[in-house]
Amino acid sequence: MRIPAELLPADGRFCCGPSKVRPAAVEALSDVAQSLLGTSHRQKAVKDQVARLRSGISAFFGLPEGYEVIIGNGGTTAFWEVAAFSLIRDRAQFATFGEFGAKFAKAVKDAPFLGTPTVHKGEPGSAAFLSAEQGVDSYGIPQNETSTGVAVPVQRVAGADDGALMLHDATSAAGGLAVDLTQSDVYYFAPQKCFASDGGLWIALLSPAAIARAEEIKSSGRYIPAFLDLVTAIENSRLEQTLNTPALATIFLAAEQTDWMNAQGGLDWAVRRTAESAEILYSWAEKSPTATPFVTDPGLRSNVVATIDFAEGIDAAKIAKVLRENGIVDTEPYRKLGKNQLRIALYPAIEPTDVQALTSCIDYVVEHL
């Protein structure tokens, strides 16, 4: 099936990660390729890009006093292990409502040197929340669950023990959803979502309390592998470098996206942009005779990852296949969720006009299947 050219989006990339990389950013990378790619990560050319990224992120989020932007090798999966070794003293509590939040909880449960965590679990499409619990020194929750398209506010747990840390998984939220960083101690993410780059890095915005916790745990004598040592990552970040060789293109593309978003108006602009795209998509689904938002509570619907269910008899997998054949790619649902739905990224790099075009293309495919 060929979708009429006049219906197609200008850019058909709607993947929830790795996300669309703006062509201008790729061109900028090409322009510096000979002076950057293939350069030692201890040299000024690379350190300048690390400094550019850290400074840009600090400005983008309006970093509170004392907070620091820390960068390390590996993505969010690696950071879960970093947190287990370097941030959790003993007892943690988690709220999980999808695949990725559950993975962090499992990593901590499997750590033989930590106590058994408390886990509040919500069913896919709904949310779960944290609650004060005596003896818990660390609380973890996703701001946005990438697998289901559920988003919750970033906020501290009322009544938590003094000194308890708040860890927010912002992998797909950071850069597209509003946040008050004073409500978090560890706001961590990877750059292949809203920051329109490739994977291979974790980025954490750490409060003074989180930095102090990492230093305390390291000084306690706990064995921490060098790759997962948060204090080592902090020390290297302050030198505008990472412990191991980073993916230079990833750092550059993330810095390009950060500078571009700052030039548009920073986080406030990005939040408005994703909200505009989300309004287009959810309004279309609510009016459609064949589609409906998977997340039934409008207050929990994500503005950066949207999941859209289809009525019985409408094969979402077939829709995704036809879209792909027409250059509209990666609208398939999260593989383990097993729903008859499409999952669509609404990150800042994606034009709202392309989201509008996508809805027209879906309507065309449904009508002609």
From TrEMBL:
Its EC number is 2.6.1.52. Its cofactor is pyridoxal 5'-phosphate. InterPro entries: Aminotrans_V_dom, Pser_aminoTfrase, Pser_aminoTfrase_mycobac, PyrdxlP-dep_Trfase, PyrdxlP-dep_Trfase_major, PyrdxlP-dep_Trfase_small. Pathway: Amino-acid biosynthesis; L-serine biosynthesis; L-serine from 3-phospho-D-glycerate: step 2/3. It catalyses: 4-(phosphooxy)-L-threonine + 2-oxoglutarate = (R)-3-hydroxy-2-oxo-4-phosphooxybutanoate + L-glutamate; O-phospho-L-serine + 2-oxoglutarate = 3-phosphooxypyruvate + L-glutamate. It holds the Pfam family Aminotran_5. The keyword Transferase applies. This is phosphoserine transaminase. The lineage of its organism: Bacteria, Bacillati, Actinomycetota, Actinomycetes, Micromonosporales. The keyword Transferase applies. Catalyzes the reversible conversion of 3-phosphohydroxypyruvate to phosphoserine and of 3-hydroxy-2-oxo-4-phosphonooxybutanoate to phosphohydroxythreonine. GO terms for molecular function: alanine-glyoxylate transaminase activity; L-serine-pyruvate transaminase activity; O-phospho-L-serine:2-oxoglutarate aminotransferase activity. Belongs to the class-V pyridoxal-phosphate-dependent aminotransferase family. SerC subfamily. It is an enzyme of class 2 (transferase).
